[in-house]
Amino acid sequence: MSEIAHKYIVMSGKGGVGKSSVAANLAVWLSTKGKQVGLLDADIHGPSVPKLLAVDDRKLASDDGHRVQPIEYSENLRVMSIGFMLSSDSEAVIWRGPMKHNLIQQFVQNVDWGRLDYLVVDCPPGTGDEPLSVIQVLGGADGAVVVTTPQEMAAIDVRKCLTFCRQVNLPVLGIIENMSGFICPHCSKRSDIFAGHSGEQMAEDFHVPFLGCIPIDPALGAASDRGKPFVTLAPESATVQALQHAFEPLLNS
Ligand code: ADP
């Protein structure tokens, strides 16, 4: 752990808000800045990082000392996920809390991460066993990046997530509002597909930074499905600029 300079936990109150997409794009973006980065997929029941980075066909190997080697996505980005241990996409992991805690502990302590500038952890949604285990085994993180969507239904659960962070003394590095409006590619008019601006309001209410809004962009969804991190695909797109703007404050020296 002492070899990891910064530890970021990407969290959300609800599933499907784009948390894994944010985590994967953040890790890839940091690696493009020349940083040594690890991406740990702690979503044991729904690991999506291997697919998001198109490394789902890779197999894990261990060294002589029985430390597991993370999958190398690139020269300076290493990835670990339970997805690398499953025989098929439809295999379900049916485990109770203690087994999940053990696995998360192994992922942190028994994986040969080497020296990292950043470890980005994609945490499963909610405030249950896994986020608690992640915080415990990391032995203190820089903080959480909390992902939400604009509508109030998502906000209700994200408020719980922010309260959780407060109670476990995990600083909130900022809130990202994903799927925030849609810019028509034909007329450039903005439509708010989901009503509300819950992210900014929550940041104000909880006195935490608001990192920014990411629009709904079918190209981002399509890139994710193809395992291409969008942040490196289309630098000129407004969505990529929004991602970069949100990530900028997370780039420490
Ligand atoms: P979570 O980790 O919160 O469950 P994911 O990152 O898996 O969410 O995203 C859920 C789905 O939404 C994925 O298909 C992803 O490609 C898509 N998605 C995420 N963010 C956006 C966005 N800004 N625009 C379009 N599609 C998105």
User: What is the number of helical segments per DSSP (H or I, 4+ residues)?
Assistant: 9
In terms of quaternary structure, what is this? single chain
Beta strand count: 12
What's the number of domains? Answer: 1
Q: Can you describe this structure?
A:
The protein has 253 residues and is an alpha/beta fold. It has helices spanning 19-32, 49-52, 97-109, 129-138, 152-167, 198-206, 218-225, 230-233, 238-247, and strands at residues 4-12, 37-41, 61-62, 68-69, 71-74, 77-81, 116-122, 143-148, 172-177, 182-183, 190-191, 210-213. The longest helix has 16 residues, at 152-167. The mean pLDDT is 92. The strands form 3 sheets. An 8-stranded mixed β-sheet has the order 5-6-2-7-1-8-9-12, sandwiched between helices. The protein has a two-stranded antiparallel ribbon with strand order 3-4. Strand 3 (61-62) and strand 4 (68-69) form a beta hairpin. The chain has a single domain (4-251), classed as P-loop containing nucleotide triphosphate hydrolases (Rossmann fold, 3-Layer(aba) Sandwich), CATH 3.40.50. It is 35% helix and 21% strand. Helix 3 (97-109) runs parallel beside helix 4 and helix 5 runs parallel beside helix 6 (198-206). The chain has 9 helices and 12 strands. Bound molecules: adenosine-5'-diphosphate.
